[in-house]
Amino acid sequence: MKSRKTAMRTMITLLCVVLVFHFLVLFEVISYEVVWGGRISSIQEMRVFEGVSILLNTFLIIILLIKAKNIRHNTKNKVVDSVIWIFVVLFALNTIGNLFSETWIELVAGTALTSLSSFLCWVIVRK
Predict the structure, then answer these.
(1) Which of 19, 27, 55, 56 is closest to 43 using CA atoms?
(2) How far apart are CA 86 and CA 80, in angstroms?
(3) How far apart are CA 126 and CA 83, in angstroms?
(4) CB 75, CB 66: distance < 8 Å
(5) Are the beta carbons of 38 and 44 closer than 8 angstroms?
(6) Does the structure show a pLDDT above 70 at 102?
(7) pLDDT by residue (tens digit) across 19-57?
(8) CA angle, 124 then 112 then 68, to 5°
(9) Integer Cα distance of 114 and 53 in angstroms
(10) Residue 38: what pLDDT?
(11) What's the rounded Cα separation, in Å, for the pair 46 and 32?
(12) Distance, CA of 49 to chain centre
């Protein structure tokens, strides 16, 4: 299905851009005050949060590549689909959280990005 392939490519591209952004925050090129709702209070805290975010985004890229059959793996399709459904929910919840962000950029860009990500994951995993 063409829309599923387009959603897959779009989602992987977005995740790669998000990874670059998180690495820029991690290496303090971008201030950590603009992420995580503006609630991070120290560099140590930022490193933990950014590390988790980088791991989760990388994990989702791998899952999507398995789903697209770009990575051969013995994981059952049902497991892969279940993981993607979890991300549909996580992105939806993150969208709600972004609506309460203390930073304008996260309120606008974060809300748009997470709602789009939730939708794209839904398109990828729906039957």
Answers:
(1) 27
(2) 10
(3) 13
(4) yes
(5) no
(6) yes
(7) 999 999 999 999 998 888 778 889 999 999 999 999 999
(8) 20
(9) 13
(10) 75
(11) 7
(12) 13
Q: How many residues does the chain have?
A: 127
Q: pLDDT digit string (tens) for 53-84? A: 999 999 999 999 999 988 888 888 999 999 99
User: Which residue type occupies 4?
Assistant: R
User: Within 10 A of 103 (CB to CB), how many other CB atoms are there?
Assistant: 18
Model pTM score: 0.90
Contacts of 34 (CB under 8 A, 6+ apart): 25, 103, 105, 106
Residue spans of the domains in the chain: they are 2-125
Spell out the alpha helix ranges (H) of the chain. 2-26, 43-67, 77-98, 104-105, 111-125
Name the one residue in this structure whose structure tokens are 């980088």: 54
**Identity of the residue numbered 76:** K
Output DSSP code: residue 68.
T
